[in-house]
Automatic annotation (TrEMBL):
The lineage of its organism: Bacteria, Bacillati, Actinomycetota, Actinomycetes, Streptosporangiales. This is AcrR family transcriptional regulator. GO terms for molecular function: DNA-binding transcription factor activity; transcription cis-regulatory region binding. The keyword Endoplasmic reticulum does not apply. InterPro entries: Homeodomain-like_sf, HTH-type_TetR-like_transc_reg, HTH_TetR, Tet_transcr_reg_TetR-rel_C_sf, TetR_C. Residues 19-79 form the HTH tetR-type domain.
């Protein structure tokens, strides 16, 4: 069988190559991932569904994990960050969106892929940039608005600071293995960790008004 050969009823044998074949393989991988999750994804099933052979798949993706990540990236969508007019409201809404996502079937697939990726930094980066769970952009946007409103310190506008809340939520799923984080956990992350961090950052430990006066010599 040729690399991208397919036979349609009532038609002669056709060959797909290049982008057309890659699209067919990715479409098949997306369908398999949606139907069976990462645990049920196999190169054999994807090749059969795409009407091609395993070699054609392996020439484009070196292993099942790489193919699974490529398929997952097709399933994700970008949602504009919330704009409630208040930093606390924005952060809570972003966390609630992420919580719903991580609790969904697509979130379960993401957790499977993260576990399979282990310490492979390149693969983890591909997952994070599409999953919304560690992408800094929406967090920097809402934090930038908060800085403009005087709700947060300008020094807090750093990706590692901006994403603290979502990293803590991710740990609930990845480290603790919860199926869904209770809303009180989200509120605790916001009120006890995130808001104090971004509001106090860069401020002196002792306010000038409360400093002890210097003694004259």
């Amino acid at each position: 069988m040729a690399e991208g050969s397919t036979t349609r009823p009532g038609a002669g044998r056709t060959r797909r190559r290049g982008a057309a074949l890659e699209e067919a393989i990715l479409d098949a991988a997306v369908a398999e991932l949606t139907d069976s999750g990462y645990a049920g994804l196999t190169i054999d099933k994807v090749a059969a569904r795409a009407g091609t052979n395993k070699n054609a798949v392996y020439r484009r993706w070196p292993n099942r994990l790489a193919l699974g990540i490529a398929a997952y990236r097709r399933l994700t969508t970008t949602v504009p960050p919330p704009d409630t007019g208040d930093l606390r409201g924005d952060v809570l809404e972003l966390l609630r969106q992420a919580n719903r996502y991580w609790s969904s079937p697509l979130g379960a697939i993401l957790r499977e892929l993260l576990a399979a990726a282990g310490g492979a930094s390149e693969l983890l980066e591909q997952l994070h940039e599409k999953s919304g769970d560690a992408a800094a952009a929406p967090w920097l946007i809402i934090l930038g608005r908060a800085v403009a409103r005087g709700e947060a310190a300008p020094e807090a506008l750093h990706p590692r600071v901006a994403t603290v809340a979502i990293v803590l939520l991710r740990n609930e799923f990845v480290v603790r293995g919860v199926p869904n984080a209770p809303d009180e956990v989200l509120v605790e992350i916001v009120d006890e960790v995130y808001l104090p961090l971004v509001r106090r950052r860069g401020r002196p430990a002792t306010p000038a008004a409360t400093r002890a006066p210097r003694h004259s010599r």
